[in-house]
Specification:
CATH superfamily of the domain at 159-321: FAD/NAD(P)-binding domain
Shape: globular
CATH class of the domain at 159-321: Alpha Beta
CATH topology of the domain at 159-321: FAD/NAD(P)-binding domain
Oligomer: single chain
Largest sheet: 7 strands, mixed
CATH architecture of the domain at 159-321: 3-Layer(bba) Sandwich
Bound molecules: flavin-adenine dinucleotide
Helix content: 25-40%
Radius of gyration: 23 Å
Distance between the termini: 43 Å
Strand content: 25-35%
Length: 471
């Protein structure tokens, strides 16, 4: 290992982490601290005001809806409720972990002052703690906000409790601190980055959630970018992916990159169930199901279980996901799976349960991938739907045919020096009861999935979407 370069990085990491804590701790505090809970009970009955349209969540979906509504009709009274002080982007954050040239925290963190001034919607920085649909009230840590129309775009929560039913609250808190998931906007990405910058030789373990989860390629893009970082920093070790199943989003494209760029240093292990984590001893224990090559009477492969444990230098334990708790607070009907997506009113962004509540982003119950790009797409459809409603017009998705080409384009960085990326596109259609998406992972003219042109497109996409949300 190149000690001088690594030592300098570690010292740098302390400075960046300290700066980031100043920016980010405040954002996360408002949510779950005893102070916020106390504020909620003492100020809980205070009515702060009534707004025509209230949007919960200042992320990809929520900001798109707020901006779109004000652009279509500047007289609309729109309020966004967001618990964080600043916006932290999850898209492209894996490239930050890979330390691609020119990226820094400023590439990912944005303040809300700019879009609020530019578009004229209101913003309340507070945590939503309850929703009273009968009274049309959103209860926040700072008081009650009344609404005529409510839009939910609160994103996801982690589901440690169902994944690890025997773990105590203290153990889960320890995991959050020492093996951050980094799938939710906030300081977790900064913590993971600090751990990587501070690591010596050793392995990085990434666990993949089971069930539906945010941005299915994200754990695999992260593995690629951490492998790129380790290669660049001359860190001896592997990136080990523990997958509860065998599927990898954009699988063939990732496998091609891992084989050709990382010399066997990205190891994907399928059918792994996490049993325990010892954060002090830095050891993860899991059970892997391995095919025996024999079949049972019904023709199914017989698997044997092997208990394993592995020492890690850094652990990125990405827990199972579920719809953010705001969805349960609203009481709208959800899918019965472990995620609990919002059931929609046909091919629309109005909820099935309540005509005055709409939903966009990762929580929608359509069969489209949960991505920033689809949150923006859905946000714009939702805007049109609400505007039509306010103008007393019927609403239909605005296409003559029933298919929209490339409603979602999702890029994943896989290589550095030269930067290379892969992509998947989804065409959306709504011939059935919900909107559905069909994916395609294209190859370039050279027969490879990855290319520098796609890496450039990734940068362009990210710059474009951020400019759209924040200017
Ligand atoms: C590592 C990673 C890489 C990704 N890469 C891509 C990519 O390349 N392309 C892509 O299209 N997508 C990507 N995504 C997915 C994308 O980030 C999400 O799909 C998108 O953010 C979903 O938007 P949303 O509005 O549903 O949720 P979010 O953007 O998460 O916004 C939800 C907001 O609600 C707020 N909130 C939550 N609870 C409360 C509450 N109780 N009170 C007040 N506010 C609350 C949160 O603080 C947050 O700001 C990636 C995700 C990850 C994790």
């Amino acid at each position: 290992m190149n000690m001088n370069r690594r030592d300098a990085l570690k010292i740098g990491a302390v400075g960046v982490a300290a700066a980031a804590v100043t920016t980010l701790t405040g954002c996360n505090n408002a949510a779950a601290t005893p102070a916020a809970a106390a504020a909620a009970t003492t100020t809980g009955k205070k009515v702060l005001g009534k707004h025509q349209i209230v949007v919960i969540g200042g992320g990809f979906g929520g900001l798109t809806v707020a901006k779109g509504l004000k652009k279509k009709d500047s007289k609309l009274d729109v309020l966004v409720i967001e618990k964080n002080d600043t916006f932290m982007s999850c898209p492209f954050s894996n490239a930050y972990l890979g330390k691609l040239e020119g990226l820094n925290l400023g590439t990912f963190i944005f303040d809300y002052a700019q879009p609020v001034s530019a578009h004229g919607y209101g913003m309340l920085k507070s945590e939503v703690v309850g929703i009273d649909r009968a009274a049309k009230e959103v209860h926040t840590a700072h008081g009650i906000v009344q609404y005529e129309i409510l839009v939910l775009s609160p994103g996801i929560d982690y589901d440690y409790e169902n994944q690890f039913p025997t773990f105590s609250k203290e153990k889960i808190a320890d995991l959050k601190r020492n093996a951050p998931g980094a799938l939710i906007p906030g300081s977790e990405h900064v913590a993971l980055d600090r751990m990587l910058k501070g690591m010596d030789d050793g392995d990085v373990v990434i666990t993949v959630p089971s069930g539906k989860f945010r941005c299915p390629p994200a754990p695999f893009e992260r593995a690629s970018m951490i492998a790129a970082f380790m290669k660049k920093e001359d860190i001896s070790g592997k990136v080990i992916i523990l997958n509860p199943g065998k599927d990898i989003a954009k699988g063939a494209a990732f496998k091609e990159a891992w084989k050709e760029l990382y010399n066997g240093n990205v190891v994907h292990m399928d059918f792994c169930k996490i049993d325990d984590v010892d954060t002090k001893g830095k050891t993860i224990s899991f059970t892997q199901k391995i095919p025996t090559g024999k079949k049972d009477a019904d023709g199914f492969e017989i698997m044997k279980e092997e208990k394993k444990s592995h020492k890690y230098a850094v652990l990125n334990l990405i827990p199972n996901n579920k719809a953010n708790g705001v969805v349960a607070m609203s009481g709208v009907e959800t899918t019965k799976d472990s995620f609990g997506k919002v059931l929609m009113n046909g091919c629309s962004f109005q909820t099935k349960t309540d005509k005055d509540i709409y939903a966009v982003g990762d929580v929608v119950g359509h069969g489209i991938p949960p991505s920033g790009q689809t949150a923006v797409w859905a946000g714009n459809q939702c805007v049109d739907e609400i505007i039509n409603r306010l103008q007393g017009k019927a609403y239909e998705l605005p296409v003559k045919t029933t298919t929209v080409n490339a409603g979602n384009v999702c890029y994943s960085m896989v290589g550095d020096k030269p930067e290379e990326a892969i992509m998947v596109t989804h065409d959306f259609s709504w011939t059935g009861a919900v909107i559905t998406g069909k994916g395609n992972v294209p190859k370039g003219p050279d027969g490879k999935f990855r290319s520098s042109a796609t890496a450039k497109a990734t940068h362009d996409w990210y710059r474009g979407v951020m400019a759209d949300l924040f200017s």
